[in-house]
Design goal:
With 279 residues, the chain is α/β, with parallel strands linked by helices. It is 42% helix and 17% strand. It contains eleven helices and eight strands.
Amino acid sequence: MTDYLQIDHQNIAYTQAGSPTNPPVLFLHGIMSHRGVWTRTIETLQQDFHCIAIDHLGFGNSDKPQDGDYSIAKQAERALKVADHFGFDNFIVIGHSMGGQIATYLASNLAPERVNKLVSVDGVVTGELSSWVQNFTRKTVDTAHHVPALYSTSLAITKTSKTYAWFVFSPWFFNIRKLPYDLWELDRKMAFNIEIAHSTPKAWDSLNATDLTASIKNITAPTLVIFGEQDGTVPVAQAHVFKKQMSVAQLILIENCGHFPMYEEFDKYIMPLEKFLKQ
């Protein structure tokens, strides 16, 4: 079920689960993605936590204004306003990919005193992405910004050709051919949503320009970093950058896993996550 709240006069889509009397957890998805990436995670955690997963402005079911500010800093501000809306004085924040970058910004620069725990899942730290994603995927995104039909065309081909889908999306997974297609189909459909043709380039520019290496030292919350060792999207070296800047952070590297541990290696991902949250 999709609910909406107004943040800065824009509709932000969200899903919530779990009792409001439980500790609150705010979930932040990555670029060209949506809140559904957290579905199975929330199903596991909702017995013990009040879970809120949002679609960032410009993505998923949230508004996508042509003149929207899709910067990392502004998305973090909106996420904090979501916490305000629900009356969360303090909360846990979990982010994936760009969402990990937003969560880290929130916990280091925006409101470190309000974050009880931080979890970054294959999160961006330095702004660097893999050369394949930065060159091939980014160029596709930039082209689609001017020729939006490229999104719908690519989506149509993806539906009819799994070989094409495997080629396009292989950087996101360690072994995409082993995954049931319907497990990741919706998330990748969102990546080809024609409505994000204008928001994605702006978000990507800010992602590349936001280096949080020096800011990590400002984080006071207990922190868990989870990373797929074979991430072909965000270089695994960024996990080590985080650990170097914050030696007390817990680092979990998952073997034979790409950019989406919640899809490829759920058990190896959820066990340390759940243990960390309940500590």
